[in-house]
Each structure stands twice: as C-alpha cells, then as structure tokens.
User: What shape does this take?
Amino acid sequence: MEAGRTETRWALNAAARVHGSGVPPVVDIVWIENISSHGARIHSRRAWKPQDHMVLIRLQGDVQVGAKVIYCQRLGVTECAIGLKFDHPVAPEQLA
Assistant: This one.
C-alpha cells in the first residue's frame, strides 16, 4: 500500500528556468504547476528522463534548487508534466 504524499502541495502558475546537466547543457523555460518543500510538478516542452538532474531557477531573483526527475508524463504533442524531487528542502514561497 502506498502512503502517498505527506505534505500539501501549493498550486502555482509561475514561470521558471531549468538547466540540465547533459552534454550539451539543456536550458528550458517551464511552468511550475504545484510545489512543496520537497518537490514540484512542472510543465516543459521537452521530455526528460527519470533520474535526470536539473537545477530549477526562479525567473525573478536568484533562488535555485537542484532536483531529480521522478517521472515524465506526456500531455500532448508539445507538452510534458515532470515530477521533481528536490535535492534538499526549500520553502515553497521562495520559488513562487
């Protein structure tokens, strides 16, 4: 039996930038759909693979957090929903 989430996610509709660690490096503008102190769900035009590592950066300000891709769900031809697990807890309002 799965326990599910232990904390509430905040609904959010904010733009952010992600930097992937691949070669060549990937930079993409994404939308944060929801967020908690341990992770987020973002929308990207690019498909990411589980275990990919990225840095999520707020567009305004200098807040950034490392994250690992947990899942990538295709939402259509040009959009994917990406589940992220942060490398360390952050206050969700820092990325809002």
